[in-house]
Each structure stands twice: as structure tokens, then as C-alpha cells.
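Action item from last meeting closed. Structure (285 res):
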């Protein structure tokens, strides 16, 4: 597990580097804005300089904006998830301050697309390993747990505000190019990471009780245990049937690996749910 965690930390750092590279080499000079808190910090930095003559870098603003969010995530989302978010934000700020702000191309469309692709790879790779880039990830995850609404709804609202403000404060074209960047970023993230909000895991195991207890210690999810039998071995087994959110997938994989590495797990998309799906803080009567 030590080497797995080290690999995860290096992946988070690499993802932070790619996000910083996308901003400093492609998006900032082109006045095209990224998604989430990165885009908010970028927009605020531009407004402070262009309208008030105040120079405050995107990296510093990103760090300051994430401080209250990280504190909230520590107590409400989970310490493990938040620790990696802290690592991501810290290194992203460091890379944003270290890398020069360049204009790799004078073509704004190329900047929008290339910046979106690189940022999508950085964010998607980070999410794939169960970490986050902080900021909006933590807020969206918390609100989704409370209201049981898709995480994408909250991303859409904030990113919509960024697009509208870019069009009002600068040229309308900036809003259109920002939309292009957000679309490309989202498409790349979806290609690298699980795109569905809810997933169904079917776990065939010889250690059903131990696995059930380990899952319930980590996450608040109902589990149905069904009898199963191996067609080849003729051994009696059990299948655990559980519906999770995509942000819980990494934790579930980690639990299964620790409790029963030989368990067979099938993950499928869940289009919809009817009936009870427990939300954060909800008490079962």
C-alpha cells in the first residue's frame, strides 16, 4: 500500500503540473478561461490587473480561494480525499508561480483547444486515482452528497458564471472560446475517468461478511448479498450488490484489494435509481 500511495501522490503532482502548464502556456495570455476554481482565479486576476491595475497572480489567488474549501472538505468530505486535494492545490500554485506565462501560439482557437486538452488530461488523471484538484471538486461533492443531485449540475452552474462574466467583462468572443475550452476539458476528463454519476458494483467473493463490514466502515451505502456458485469450481460464493457514486470508486477498489484480492468485481453504469439511495447524514429508520 505504501507504493500505491506514493504512486498516487506523484500522479497528483503530475496532474497539477499539467493544469499549470495549460494555464501559463495557453489560456492566460489568450484570455480564455479554465473550468472550476482555476478559471475563477484566472478571471479575478485578469479583472484586478485590467480594471484596477493590481497585479495578483492566478496561483496565489487559487491558493487563497482553496483554503476555506479545504477546511470544509476536511470535516465534511473525508480526510484522505482532502489531503490529496491539498497536495494538488499546493503544487499547482507552485508550478503556476515557477512556470513563465507564454504565448505558444497567436491563434486563440489553438490555445483554447490545446489548453483544454492538457488541462483535461491533468484533471482526469488525478480523478482517476481518487484524488481531486480541490476547489469546485470538494464543493460539488459535498453538495451532491447532501442533495443527491448530479455533481455535474454544480460544475455547470459555476462554469456558466465564468462564461457569462468573460463575455461581459471582455469581448463576447472570449465567452465563446471559454465554452470551447470547457467542452474539450470535459470530453478529455470523461475519456480518462468514469463519466457516470452513479455506478453499480457486483462483487463475487468468498469473504462476503468481511468485505461488507469493511465497505460500511468507509462509506454509507446499502449492500445486497446474494448467493452465488462458481460454474467451473462449483464453490459456493456470495455476490455483493452495491450502488456507489463515481467518487467512491477508488475507495471501493482499495477496500476489495485489501480484504479479498481474488474477488471478481464488475462495474457497470447506473442510468437511474428508483427507491431509497442514502444521502449524507440521512438516518435509516
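Sequence:
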Amino acid at each position: 500500500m505504501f507504493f500505491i500511495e506514493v504512486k498516487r501522490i506523484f500522479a497528483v503532482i503530475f496532474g497539477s503540473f499539467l493544469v499549470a502548464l495549460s494555464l501559463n502556456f495557453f489560456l492566460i495570455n489568450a484570455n480564455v478561461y479554465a473550468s472550476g476554481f482555476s478559471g475563477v482565479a484566472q478571471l479575478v486576476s485578469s479583472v484586478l490587473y485590467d480594471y484596477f491595475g493590481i497585479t495578483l497572480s492566478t496561483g496565489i489567488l487559487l491558493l487563497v480561494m482553496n483554503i476555506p474549501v479545504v477546511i470544509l472538505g476536511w470535516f465534511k468530505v473525508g480526510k484522505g480525499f482532502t489531503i490529496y486535494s491539498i497536495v494538488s492545490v499546493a503544487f499547482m500554485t507552485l508550478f503556476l508561480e515557477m512556470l513563465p506565462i507564454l504565448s505558444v501560439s497567436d491563434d486563440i482557437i489553438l490555445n483554447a483547444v490545446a489548453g483544454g486538452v492538457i488541462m483535461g488530461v491533468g484533471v482526469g488523471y488525478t480523478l482517476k486515482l481518487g484524488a481531486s484538484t480541490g476547489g469546485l471538486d470538494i464543493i460539488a461533492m459535498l453538495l451532491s452528497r447532501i442533495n443527491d443531485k448530479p455533481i455535474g449540475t454544480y460544475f455547470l452552474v459555476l462554469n456558466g458564471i465564468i462564461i457569462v462574466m468573460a463575455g461581459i467583462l471582455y469581448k463576447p468572443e472570449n465567452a465563446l472560446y471559454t465554452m470551447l475550452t470547457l467542452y474539450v476539458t470535459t470530453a478529455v476528463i470523461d475519456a480518462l475517468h468514469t463519466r457516470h454519476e452513479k455506478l453499480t458494483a457486483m462483487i463475487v467473493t468468498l469473504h462476503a461478511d468481511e468485505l461488507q463490514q469493511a465497505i460500511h466502515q468507509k462509506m454509507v451505502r446499502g449492500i445486497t448479498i446474494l448467493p452465488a456458485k462458481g460454474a467451473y469450481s462449483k464453490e459456493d460464493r456470495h455476490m455483493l450488490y452495491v450502488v456507489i457514486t463515481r467518487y467512491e470508486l477508488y475507495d471501493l477498489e482499495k477496500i476489495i484489494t485489501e480484504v479479498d484480492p481474488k474477488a471478481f468485481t464488475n462495474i457497470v453504469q447506473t442510468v437511474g435509481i428508483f427507491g431509497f439511495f442514502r444521502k449524507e447524514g440521512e438516518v435509516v429508520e
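Note appended to the action item: The first helix runs from residue 2 to 27.
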